[in-house]
Each structure stands twice: as structure tokens, then as C-alpha cells.
Amino acid sequence: MMDIAPATLVTLGSPSGVAREASERISECLRRAIAARGAATLALSGGTTPRHTYELLAEAQDVVWSAVALFWVDERAVPPTDVRSNYLMAFSALVARVGLDSRRVWRMQAESPDIDGAAVEYARLLRSQVDADDEGFPAIDVVVLGVGIDGHTASLFPGESTVEQREPLVASVAASGVREARLTVTAPIIEHARNVFVLVVGEEKRPALARVFSAQGSARATPARIIRRCRGSVTWILDEEAARFNG
Ligand code: 6PG
User: Fold this and answer.
1) Distance between CA atoms of 190 and 212, rounded to whole angstroms?
2) Closest Cα to atom 3, ligand 1: which residue?
């Protein structure tokens, strides 16, 4: 059988338990990366689930934030001052509270009138700022992901060609219905991350999780199945509501 990488699945009693567990595990990874290599790279998702995690992360002890370079997994085509901006969410929850070096805070400029150019630029940035693994792909120390009710992760949506895009490493995502255009990392960034944490809460996520963990299915239909292809460590952190996805 394919593809499923060894993953840890942790279930907590509540969304705040998820946030506490995630912040502890993420901060431990950052500490270990800094101890081993003198620096760490962290890529954040947006959405509603991770905000509390980021707030708790800001209180973590002994993370040398000046040694952390920060990236985003995806971003909406809105200015960084817009309430829908993933940058703004992470800025208020984490960046503004810790001593991050602003020269190492790399936001996605998805509001650019040339969004395809912005995708290429961000891909170039990832290649220049993140150490490559032995296959030549940027290997981010910690990537934080969520899963949408339709099975998307990052801004890789079901049925869209970006799910299969390998190059550039960042894709522009066309607007669709009420969804604004976006930038998103593509599958190789997820697959080559050293540590992936997937935070999922709420019973409405059960059908998507069932599709992710099913023996049958495709990443094209359920993009979060890309997480099954990760080379590094994968930790799913779910609340009890989400965790009852297989009956
Ligand atoms: C975003 C995302 C997206 C998110 C999922 C889950 O910016 O919206 O990065 O992939 O992680 O949609 O979102 P919730 O945490 O809001 O359920």
C-alpha cells in the first residue's frame, strides 16, 4: 500500500486542549531546531483553529524568537491590514507579542496585482531562506496546517490543478464564488517539511477526516491527503468532536 507515513494522532477533550498541546509540541520543535542548527523555520496557516495556539506559543518559554524565520502556508488576496489576512491574524496572535526579527517575517504578498509573480517570488524566497533537504526541496522545521470541511489544506482545494502543482513551489489560486484569490504553498513544501502539525476541531470536520484517512481516495478530491506523503514527522491534534470521524 501506498503512501501513509507514520503519523501521531493526539486527541484532546476541547479546542483549548488542542491549542495547549499544539503550542507545547511546536515550541519543543522550534527549541530543538535552534539547538541543532542555530535557527528555525516556521510556516503558519490561517483559519480560525490555530489562533489560540499562536497566542499560547507567544507565551512559550525558552524559544529564541530572534532565531526563528516565519513564513505563511497561504494567504488571501487582501491587504495585510484586512481582517481576513492570515498575516494579520498571526501578527496579532504571535508576532507582535514576541521578539521576532522583522527581517525574518516573510508574509505572502497575495494582494499584489501580479499574483502569479508574487507566487514565483515567494517560491524563490522559500528556496533562498530555508535549508534544502537531500532531495533539494526546502525543508521547513514546522508547518502548521488545518483541514477544511471540503478536505482542503493550505489553499489547495478539491479538484483544482494546484493540488498537483510541483513548480513553482507556491501557487496562485483563482477566486471562486465568494472565495477570494489566494497564494498557497504547493504539495512539495508540505511533503518535505521536517515536522507537520495538523490542528482540527469540530464535528463538521469528521467527513473530511474520514476521507483523509480512508484507504481509498485521491489528493485531487481530498487535498489534505497530501499530508500522508510527508517525509518528516506528522502530528494530528484533534478535539474529541473531530476525532470521532470513523464512527
Ligand atoms: C486558511 C487556511 C486553511 C485552513 C482550513 C481550516 O487560511 O483558511 O490555511 O487551509 O487551515 O480552512 O480552517 P479552520 O481552522 O477555520 O477550520
Assistant:
1) 15
2) 154
Cis peptide before 168 (omega within 30 of 0): yes
**Helix-strand-coil percent breakdown of the chain, rounded to 5?**
40, 20, 40
For the whole model, what pTM was predicted? 0.97
Ligand 1 atom closest to the Cα of residue 205 is 17
What are 130-165's pLDDT values in tens digits? 999 999 999 999 999 999 999 999 999 999 999 999
Calculate how far, in angstroms, residue 246's C-alpha sits from the geometric centre of ligand 1: 22
Domains defined for the chain, CATH in brackets? 7-246 (3.40.50.1360)
β strands within 146-202, DSSP E? 170-173, 182-185, 195-200
Taking CA atoms only, the protein residue closest to ligand 1 atom 10 is 154
Residue 238 CA to its chain's centroid (Å): 15
